[in-house]
Each structure stands twice: as C-alpha cells, then as structure tokens.
TrEMBL record, chain A:
Natural source organism: Natrialba taiwanensis DSM 12281
Taxonomy, superkingdom: Archaea
Region described as Disordered: spans on this chain: 100-119
Name the record gives this protein: DUF35 domain-containing protein
Annotated SUPFAM superfamilies: Nucleic acid-binding proteins
InterPro entries listed in its UniProt record: NA-bd_OB-fold (IPR012340)
TrEMBL record, chain B:
Sequence ranges assigned to domain Thiolase N-terminal in this UniProt record: 4-222
Domain Thiolase C-terminal: from-to ranges: 240-381
InterPro entries xrefs: Thiolase, Thiolase-like, Thiolase_C_2, Thiolase_N
Signal peptide: none
PANTHER family registered for this protein in UniProt: ACETYL-COA C-ACETYLTRANSFERASE, NON-SPECIFIC LIPID-TRANSFER PROTEIN-LIKE 2
Protein name: Propanoyl-CoA C-acyltransferase
Amino acid sequence: MTMDAYRYEDGTISYPGHPRGPDGAEPVETIDLSEFTAEVVTWTTSTATPPGVREPNHLAIVEFTIEGESVRAIGQVTTGEIEVGDEVRPVYVDELREPGAGIREPASQEWDGYRFEPV
Amino acid sequence: MERVAVIGSSMTQFGQRDEWVLELLSEAGLACLDDAGVDAADVKHLYVSNMASGEFEGQTGIMNALAQDIDATPAYTQRVDQTSSSGGAGIYAAWQSVASGASEMTLLVGGEKMTHRTTGEATDVIASLTHPVEYKHGVTLPSFAGLTARHYLDRFDAPRESLGKVAVKNHKNGVDNPHAQFRKEVDLETVLESPIVADPLRLYDFCPITDGSAALLLCPESVAQEYTDEYAVITGIDGATDTHVVHEREDPTVMGGVVESGEGAYEMSGREPDDIDVAELHDMFTILEFLQMEGLGFAEQGEAWELVEEGETERDGELPINTSGGLKSKGHPLGASGVAQGVEIYEQLVGEAGPRQVEADVGLCCNVGGFGNCVITTIMEAAQ
C-alpha cells in the first residue's frame, strides 16, 4: 500500500491524482506521501459518524512539502490530542471504515490507507 | 432574448412528514399552479430537483410520475440532480428552458424525503458524494464544516460566538415562517452549549434532516403579464464548480464556486453586491453563511463575522440574510432547498412574505452543493 500523489508536468502535485492537473498538465510521476511527514492545517473530531465509521472520528487536513511544492491530504488521525501546526506521519491501517456498512459499493474503492499520527 | 419571469410559488410544510417523495412533490406542484392560476395542461416543461430519491426511498422516475400525478402530461420532464444545489440547478434549468424559447410555461418542483432514515444513514447518503479518498476516512459534510470553521476562526481571529449568532438569527427568522421545520427561537447559550457534532461546531450550527417540497413557475415576461401584474424577473443566474476534493483548494476559506457563480449572476443582471436588498444563503452549517457572504462580495474575506456581530444581517439590518429562517431553521430537504430559497426571494419581491416582509426590489439566492463543490447563484428582481 502506498499513498500516491501525482506530480504533473508543470511541477504541481495533487493528492489524489487526476488524469489532468492544473491548466491541463499531464501527470509525469507518482510520489508516495507515506514516506514523508506533514503539518496539520486544521482538524476536527466528528461525533455524528455514518454506519461503519469509528466514533468519534478524528480527522485532519495536513500539508506535505515535497521539494518545495506543497500538497494537502485529508485523513483520520490516531488521536484527538492534536493541534494546528503539529507534525504528523502516515501510519498504515488495513481498514479505515467497514466496507459494506455504508451506501457505497464495497468493490468500488479501496478501504485501507493511512492515518496521521503525531510525531 | 425575452426576460424570464416567476409568477407563482409554493412550499409544503417542511419537517418530519408522513408523505413520501411523490406525494410531497405533487402537493407543492399543485399548490404552485394554483397560486399562479395556471392550468397544468399549459405546463410545457416540468423539472424536478432531487438529489437522492433512489437512495433514500428506492423511487426513481419521479419526474414522469409527477407529470402524471398533477395531470401535466405530455410536458417534457427532467430530474435535476446537483446534490444539495439541485434546487438552484433546477432554477437554472427552468430559466434556460424559458430563455431559450423552448418552453412558454415551466414548472419547477424540488423535493426530498429523508426522515425515515436514521441520522447516520442520511449522513451517509449525503456523504456518498465525496471522493473515494475522503469517503474511506468517514469524511462527512459536517466534518468539512468543522475543519473549515476551525481554520476560519483561527486565521481571522473571529469569536466562536459569531457563528452561534448566525444560528440565533436564523431561528428567530424561522419563527415567522409557517412552513419552517423549527419555529422556535434559541439563545446563544443554548447554541454554544449544545452537543459537539464536528468540533468546534455543535448541534445548533447544523441544519436538520427534513422532508419537504417547494415549487416555482416560470414563463416569458410577456406571458406573465397575461396572468398578473405582481411577478418577479430572474435577471441574473450562473452556476460554477470548485474542486471536488475539498482539501485541494488553495484557500480553505474561499468557495470558488460561490465567487464564480456570483460574478456571473452580477454580470448578467448588471447588479453589484450593494444592490442586493435581501439574500437567501445556503446555511447548511453556520460557517457557510460567512463563506458565502464573503464570496458574494457582501463582506471582505475574514470580515463577514463582523457584520453578523453588528446585526447587519438581521431582518431589520442593512442586508437581511435568510429571512425564511434559512436551511438552519426552515429545514434542508436537499432537492427542495434551493427552490425554497427562490420561493422566499420571490415572495419578498412581490410583497407576500407576511411578517417576514422586508423592503426589497432585488434579491439573491445562493445554493451550495457538496461543500462548495457546485454552486448556483440567482438574482431576482421585482417587476418594474
């Protein structure tokens, strides 16, 4: 499992990747964000969670800086003890929510991924 | 191109209803035709704004079913789904149908039936609009609101109470709306001490889950004048998108779809933010009222909260916002909400808003889909 972002021909990076980036730029490589640390931009603790989602669900938007280029990601956090500006690292989780408990077709997407853990 | 007029409106009781979606749509559709004095046989196009009747109820094909139920066949029908902005998108579709000359009488009915589902199930149906990288983390629309509210409050040094005052204001307005789900005032202390839903936002920062339907009737201005002297004209309308993946936006406090659709609507109408006398904004969460006020040019970035603190957005303020009670107290039956915004602005412009009436010649509504993923802004003016 990797946490793949796309780098586009104009140098920008996005997570997730898209077939086309800013101004129609095509992707030229993938970058595994799980190998980097990031900074918490903002966070919340959600207490009204849908079927199959842990409660409470700590979530954060974090920002990676890869060779001077910023890219953000959203994801679960391992703890509610977190502050804006904290440094976090991705840690692998084999099931972020229970597939099939919600409305989305289980086979339509992956359910493993990375939570952010304060460094 | 002839101007597009609105000559009728209706809105069912919003709240927890026994009726299912087809019954709600029929109730609003028939009431709207009755309000305008137009026969169903004269309806050429029928649009139904709805996000998820298939997911909520297992009922699809609702536009055709409605056409038969209100005896509007053989009118052309189309269901309009643009998530939470389906209603605004329906106004855009209905406007296009008349402006293009394809229809001389277009009925728009928005509706949703949600309350038979648990809060978790309804939240999941709505969250199904999210990207797979968001959905697998259990990201919901309320959690986007919590993330954005924390960032806004920290960055602009805005007091937490200012968000609470949006809820207090809109609940106060809803008391005078006979169709609102909640017709009860709340005080700031109640808002700030209610249970946390998505930290730092609490229960009263969020709209409820709602059943309901609303309708508008559109036609060319020359046709409108055959029916009434009291009508409104859609002078500006535009829709726009922002990134579907919310965290990819350069500035989390700017909704690009609001800015773009607002600029388009202003340009079409020749109006500016200062010209707007009354506005209905998509207050699905209190923080959204700030972001739309700023995106539409009613306030500078990071300063909308100051206008709320100063009472400028109260019913007797400089720019009354959400005189209907907003989604916050009126309720948010997804596909109906954007249409109901149009109903409120129409009623304000033709002087039918009763105890909620403000002095208004120009009104605006902004209907937000997803978390600003797609937005429709409409400017309506009283007929001159």
